[in-house]
Write a structure and sequence with these properties.
Elements lengths: L1 H15 L6 H4 L5 E4 L2 E6 L2 E9 L16 E8 L2 E8 L7 E10 L4 E10 L6 E10 L1
Length: 136
């Protein structure tokens, strides 16, 4: 199971690579994210994954797009099946909770590998997490 989890998580960051900030911006990061270990099976093609996160607002002096461009993404792999989902993140330097509907699959009750990423609108505050979750 650990090897499967490691292999699955090795692929997921590559999918998000074009979205990653440059190393110079990454050094300025002040964000956190964690994945709740239990996910809910909504249907065979959708699971609900809850994450706790915090990120700083974008710097208004350098970014004109507004905070609505901040995002939180979750990818899940289980027995060769994959899925992804995202929501708008509330980057307000507070602790927040979001439940993300991850679509794909097919998913079944049991263990799965999850990867989560939160980023504010100007890429100056971001974090990643990976975890083994249980789909129920």
């Amino acid at each position: 199971m650990v090897r499967t989890l490691v292999r699955a998580l090795a692929v997921v960051p590559l999918l998000a690579f074009p979205l990653m900030p440059s190393p110079a911006l990454a050094a300025q990061t002040s964000a956190s994210i964690s994945i709740v270990q239990q996910a809910t099976l909504v249907s065979s093609t959708t699971i609900a994954v809850t994450v706790h996160y915090s990120c700083q607002p974008p710097n208004s002096a350098t970014f004109l797009g507004g905070p609505s461009n901040s995002f939180l993404a979750v990818d899940v792999s289980q027995n060769g099946a994959q899925g992804a989902g995202s929501v708008t993140a509330n980057c307000d330097d507070q602790n927040n909770v979001a439940t993300v509907d991850v679509s794909g699959g097919p998913f079944v009750p049991g263990s799965a590998a999850a990867f989560a990423f939160v980023d504010n609108a100007d890429f100056s505050s971001n974090a990643t997490a990976s975890a083994e979750i249980t789909i129920r």
